[in-house]
Amino acid sequence: MRPSDLFGGSPFGRRVRRPGAGRVPVTVVTGFLGAGKTGLIRAALASPDAARTAVIVNEFAELGVDDVLLRTSAEDVRLIGNGCMCCAARSDLQRVLRNLYAERETGAVPPFDRVIVETSGLSDPGPVLQLLAGDRALSGHYAVSALVTVVDCVLALDGQAPPEWIEQVVLADRIVLSKTELASEAQVARVRAHVAALNPGAEILEASNLRADPLAWLAPVAAGGARGFRAAPAAVGPDAVSCQSFVLSFDTPFRWEVFLQVMETLLALRGDDVLRVKGLVHVEGCAGPVAAHFVRHLAARPEELTAWPDADRRSRLVFITRNVSAAQVQALFDAVLALAPPPG
Amino acid sequence: MLTTTDQGADDSQTRNFKLIAHHDLGGFGGLGEGMSIQIAKDGRRILWLAHESAPKNFTALDVTDPKSPRMVVQTELPQAHMRSNSLEVTGDIMVVAYQTQKAGQQPAGMEIFDISVPEQPKSLSFFDCSGPHSRGVHQLWFCDGEYVHMAAGAPDFTPRDAKDDQFYRIIDVRDPTKPTEVGRWWLPGTREGDSAPAPVRHTPEFDLGFRAHNTNVYPQRPDRAYLGYLDAGMIVLDISDKSAPKPICRWDNSPPYAGFTHTVLPLFERNLLVVTDESVVDDGADWPKLVWILDARDETNPIPIATCPMPSRAVFAKRGGRVGAHNLHENLPLPTSWFSDQVIIGTFFNGGLRAFDISNPYQPVEIASFVPPAPPLAPTGAIQLNDVFVDERGIVYTVDRHVGGVYILEMDF
User: How many structural domains are present in chain A?
Assistant: First the structure.
């Protein structure tokens, strides 16, 4: 008998009810400057529903918390009531997340239940997603529960928003329309229709006066997207940031190693242009689907779920890419599957 | 570390559990380590609970709707020096352990009830375990409807050390009106007259007894009994001949640890044993009381390969009362019990309820915790979660040792 016989269950470890179960959920909030990310987070922190949240921002001043209860010796953590804390990640989000977890274990900071990371600068969420997918220590403790993009209803359609916002919308799991109180109903409807067209899989919420139900916008999303496996019909956005999403489904279960060979080839060739891939893979020998998540060149830890979400047993993957088409990716799958040697 | 006083801090925490109900049992919320579910003939789901000390004996809660538990019955002990502590239900038969404060007191033993009408438990028999050196029954296991396996004293058993009075006894209850002993085993050297030398006692502060505690037997291996034997460590017995149990192995971590090995949970398909040592001293004085993972591929030579992460000593040691391992959900071989060999759920007194992912047995990971605030009038000033049971629906029940009653939770991991 070998030591490997002591490992039970799935080759992917413990089967989980939802991706990231048992790890600290991290909500990544993105959106261009002034879209209302900070206001949304501040409003959540005032709600009991978001108690015990650790918020990571660039500068304390950004969050404008003036009711700081306590400073810790770690310069970058301040308790702000409601069991919440505010952390400054001026340069190194990785270090802050590691320290936070370690300090929670030793009782140096309160036992936070979730983390909100507010992205900075031009708000490219890619590096944050990559960090949480690729850092082995961090990914054992934290899991991305949702990428939330805040869209300013007033600026979204009048050309004042930077072109990067298109990419943020396409990447999002959930979209919060902000400043709806400053826009007409017709304008809000137009923005909603526009972002829904850009990202049909995302759930769209509205936040009047920057207030949205924290339970709604902080909730984890399903593996394929908040609204299931849906894709934009065509490439969108200006040429500089042109990106698209598409869904591929596969009727035949994969051998996991073959699936990985396809993805490794794709990411080796075009990893910079494969912004995000997420979905459920039917793997031979597994009772539940395997939740897969790739961010550019990096693969997050796959997890086998306890059950399929519905009767559909096909593998389903949402690809968000730049200048990589569904036909190209499908061709790669076909080629590798055709060449893969039989098991043995 | 914090540099100023922690103003307004809330000691409670809930991570990946969801509290859906709480019941204080009418002010008698001190509960032992007997928790069992009955599906009554009318379909109601009844949670039977043993109290940690007098005056109450046991309480039944209707948990058909786990969000709205309702008390069905609560009974009294006949003597203030008794405690029931442990019970088990199979079908409509419930067995209850009675232990006394001092050896020689009565009644001490096991009572068997017909609970087919949950509101009216009907005593069928009493199995007397009292004696000049016996405190009666501390804990029992009853899952097959035929045999009770228990940690008990006996009228004819004279221990060399008074603390070693309770040993392993097998009682045939196939006729619940006439329970009969069919086998017994004690650690050689603990009984007056044994040819084996007396065991070397632990140091005085941790000399707590070489006696049986949990006595688990599973249908996957009906010929094995898995004993937590307190200061003697963990013992596996061959009970293929119930009249003559034979030791298969003993794993003893103490000293250097502080003894009081409590539970042995076998995970058969993975060749693992999960073993707990109970914390029995306040304020972290017996730290660390651990949950151990043992490689049992060779059942004669179990090897510890990991321990589950503990609640932070800095946070909990001085919070009040005990902190450290105690009971686990034991995968009871009953249709009303949840089963997992991937997730271990246990109680840690003021460290609350904790769940661990042991899919990698060399590296257990904590995935959930529940530490409720100190219940009103908590004598230690902190919660003291004592036992846990998870039903086949995945509903988690955990109980406070002193006053807090029952907390009902859903798992979110």
Answer: 2
| CB-based contact A22 B367, cutoff 8 Å | yes
pLDDT tens profile B294-340? 999 999 999 999 999 999 898 899 999 999 999 999 999 999 999 99
Asked if B270 and A23 come within 8 Å (Cβ–Cβ), the reply is no
* Mean pLDDT score across all residues of chain A: 84
Pairing status of strand A303-304 against strand A142-152: unpaired
Same domain as A302, residue A272 = yes
Among residues A190, A218, A246, which one ends one of the domains? Answer: A218
**Which ranges in B221-327 belong to alpha helices (H)?**
313-316
In angstroms, rounded to a whole number, what is the distance separating the alpha carbons of residues B227 and B239? 12
Residue among A201, A96, A208, A197 at smallest CA distance from A152: A208
Side by side, which strands form the sheet with B70-76? B31-39, B45-51, B56-62, B70-76
φ and ψ at residue A201, rounded to 5 degrees? -80, -15
B309, B316 contact by CB (below 8 A): no
What chain B residue is nearest to A84 in terms of C-alpha separation? B9
Determine the pLDDT at residue A61. 56
Name the pLDDT band for A239 (thresholds 50, 70, 90). low
Q: Between chains, do B9 and A110 touch, taking CB under 8 Å as contact?
A: yes
Question: pTM for the complete prediction?
Answer: 0.89
What would the mean pLDDT of A8-25 be, rounded to a whole number?
88
Q: From the DSSP assignment, how many helices (H) and strands (E) are in chain A?
A: 10, 15
Residues 6+ apart with CB under 8 A from B48: B34, B35, B36, B37, B38, B58, B59, B60, B87, B89, B94, B115
pLDDT tens string A65-82: 544 444 444 446 666 666
Q: B35: closest CA among B148, B159, B139? A: B139
Give the A:B interface size as CB pairs under 8 Å: 87
Q: How far apart are the first and last CA of chain A?
A: 21
In terms of domains, do A164 and A251 share one?
Answer: no
